[in-house]
Amino acid sequence: MAENEDVSEDLYWRTGVSEVEPENVSIRGYDLEDLIGLPFGAMAFLLIRSRLPTPAETKVFDALLTGVLDYGLQKPGTAAARYVVSSNPNMQAGLATAALAAGDFSLAPENAARFIQERHREFIEAGSGDLEAFARSVVEDADRTRLRIPGFGHPVFKGVDPRGAKLKKIAQEAGLWGEPARLYEAIHAEFIKNPKRSHFPINDVGILAAISIAIGLSPEESTAMAIIGTLPGVTAHISEELNARKPVRVIPPKDTYTSISRRDVVADLKDAGWDCP
Amino acid sequence: MAENEDVSEDLYWRTGVSEVEPENVSIRGYDLEDLIGLPFGAMAFLLIRSRLPTPAETKVFDALLTGVLDYGLQKPGTAAARYVVSSNPNMQAGLATAALAAGDFSLAPENAARFIQERHREFIEAGSGDLEAFARSVVEDADRTRLRIPGFGHPVFKGVDPRGAKLKKIAQEAGLWGEPARLYEAIHAEFIKNPKRSHFPINDVGILAAISIAIGLSPEESTAMAIIGTLPGVTAHISEELNARKPVRVIPPKDTYTSISRRDVVADLKDAGWDCP
Amino acid sequence: MAENEDVSEDLYWRTGVSEVEPENVSIRGYDLEDLIGLPFGAMAFLLIRSRLPTPAETKVFDALLTGVLDYGLQKPGTAAARYVVSSNPNMQAGLATAALAAGDFSLAPENAARFIQERHREFIEAGSGDLEAFARSVVEDADRTRLRIPGFGHPVFKGVDPRGAKLKKIAQEAGLWGEPARLYEAIHAEFIKNPKRSHFPINDVGILAAISIAIGLSPEESTAMAIIGTLPGVTAHISEELNARKPVRVIPPKDTYTSISRRDVVADLKDAGWDCP
Amino acid sequence: MAENEDVSEDLYWRTGVSEVEPENVSIRGYDLEDLIGLPFGAMAFLLIRSRLPTPAETKVFDALLTGVLDYGLQKPGTAAARYVVSSNPNMQAGLATAALAAGDFSLAPENAARFIQERHREFIEAGSGDLEAFARSVVEDADRTRLRIPGFGHPVFKGVDPRGAKLKKIAQEAGLWGEPARLYEAIHAEFIKNPKRSHFPINDVGILAAISIAIGLSPEESTAMAIIGTLPGVTAHISEELNARKPVRVIPPKDTYTSISRRDVVADLKDAGWDCP
Fold first, then answer.
1. In degrees, to the nearest 5, what angle opens at C-alpha B250 toward C-alphas B248 and B252?
2. What residues in B contact A103, CB-CB < 8 Å?
3. Name one GO biological process term (chains A, B, C, D) (predicted).
């Protein structure tokens, strides 16, 4: 980059994502105009991994982005977004709300991804090459320290989670089901040897995490992809809500138990030491 | 400010809120250490109006901040915040969500404040000094153009909104119920001459807007104060939710009507012109 | 849907986006498992338009999603997201921030989309069929009422905005450059007859708005697609920031002009009528 | 509560914050009308602690809310909020952004509060009553496991942080500097015996955490109070930004080092295995 050749690398900000010049925007080195109209999944891969994906990688990346898609009103972020726009009819506010609802209890594969990444790093460092033995020690450790292994079990599906199975199939057919994913499966195989949990599948979040690692995403980026993947559905719900013309949604009082005893403010202020008339 | 004397005013950013030096933070000209522990309402006034309030102004400002306080689960922002933290147990995400729910249909006095401010500006410019006549023309204009005047009417209260009445009383006793507020009342008096709306009170949002203008806030700042005023209540609700241990709240299916017909993806893709196996 | 056949349509919530049953999730009528792995752009179309797109529509939809992609640190939402995660290293918070930065001054084609949609509705209602004559009256009206027509002009590009040109080419080749878009072009042609603005192109936001209308999106949905389209780039920037290990970014003091005079809090409190020691 | 007497406690939602009836809102048992106009700090205490504070508690609570107040443009959340509203001129979006910027690296006393709370619980459970001995073991443990103790050290202040000192003085004068705070001080006293860190003060965040625990807040609530306390300042900054008329703020290019090499998209797609013309 001739323009920056003599520029210090000590500047306050650094970026390698894009370069913006008056007449040209270069995205990871490619002219924006050349990228407009290419499939969005491939472009998302380019932005994050800093290189163009192969067709196989694009297929898996699309699977990652479509692994959840929507969950009706059974997803906290969608419910929250509809409440928000019922009062503030603003698309941006609704989408931001849905993003904020991803976390420890839904839509964030990052805990499982971090688990897989760290266990695989330890496996590599241990150097034994024996997946089964390593998996056994992981489950024993988890049992002893009462650590929950993320991504196992489902409230409905026993044995197999069909969404997880479909995701795994796509990754395997693409040749992108790597060693970390196989280690995770070995851990799962060991985990279900305990009869009390023999029916626990690897759930869809677990598989999404495994694929995210296989495709080179950081744990945080796996959460970002889960969020982006659900935003078209959230958009559809926000449109429904804007068209519903039910301003100011509330929690239906019939669903709420309220337990409050009436009190007297003047008496209680005096009791609390205030000097009031 | 000796330090900045020779500094160009052309810098990219300008601020007059605070000055931060290594050993000293000056807030609107006062040392932060001297302000710590003063009443929060007075400090909020200082930050926004750039001068210390009188005791009367502080009283009215506290009224502004306590005008809503909480509305149980009957407020969209509180519902949304609880949904969000049921999935992402994070205080910041919950508070941000509640802020985003302020808007055209609740918790944003700014539309009413803008109405009062603009009408009062026109009244001053007209120069007649006759509040009643001007109010009459405002209502006639609104009726002709079918414009809803913000801040009038309440789903429950007829004639008087007791919260609005309390707020007005505090502002009047403080001597801070100014001409814009009186003009708004005159418009209301004219408005309820129509028998069909004779029972419409000025509601609490309307009074909050009138007081905001009286105390020198911009319309946007009136919304900010309404938001800040409810955040302690939102905090209490988020704590309740974090303690409820009900991860992943959903909209109860019994409250939802879903209308979807099943379709076949392969057939429909072909119909749409795709070439698929 | 047998389960709901006898269910009242009067329930508090209604949705037609998805149906969630214990063992099955149906998205716009299709089994989630059948959709996993299809291209994300097509799935976004399905969620929002409630039907599968044709290949041509998918191409245009991908163009919509890739029309901006990234703008380095020259985009307020990206800057804001990096500031946020420098203090709160949390992907969700960063993505939500970027979504909130879409608005009147960037990343929200909805104002232009609303303009096109409303003018086209008036054109249909007028019934003359003469695009040029109607366009002339639109520009005359705008000039008379000093209304800015959204989507015209660019700080750098004169005559043609190459990104806009690429987007238009894709839509035209797909046969999806409809009458609203042609009306918008006619308005533009009329607009640049004024020599002072003869060099104003339709900019990329204007073209994105025109395509959004052509493809059946609501104005708010056009903003949603612009936001979603930039989130992979925002994800990349957040990853850069999380790896930068520069906690607590600030506005560099050298970029800031601060104008504050020191004051004495005790003296000023007394002046304001407070009774303090 | 007569109305709910026969209502099951099994309802989906439960709350004890407020009860909303058509004509009455009861906040923690008090009529909203009776609370309007009371000092905001006392009301915030009521909402969160579910009882009215004493005058001493109110003083300390106000100290908590005014402990930071503002930090000019040297606070990531304020910078982020100004970037956001420069594109989306919306108060709510700006305030939400500022809330999201509280986190591990600033404005979130909760890590320190959690540390104090947990160490104090262990101290109670240990039952020895010897603060100094327990403090010594805490520091030894931290040194051995290389755990950073939160709330110690300041980039500028050596020995004493004057803001922390002021906060402590207020809490002590109010008689609200309890055993957990004294334990934290004992840990600090032990910590600075190491000559390399003899100049580390307890910083303002550490003292805010100690006071939060003393006043009965949960760690998450301490973060909420820090956020609420800074929002009036953020409001002032947003107003400045809305008045600055500098739409679409960017990171000044002169502050940015961009490192990107140009690439050819067609060649690279072919290399990646794509079949393109």
1. 145
2. 87-90, 93
3. carbohydrate metabolic process
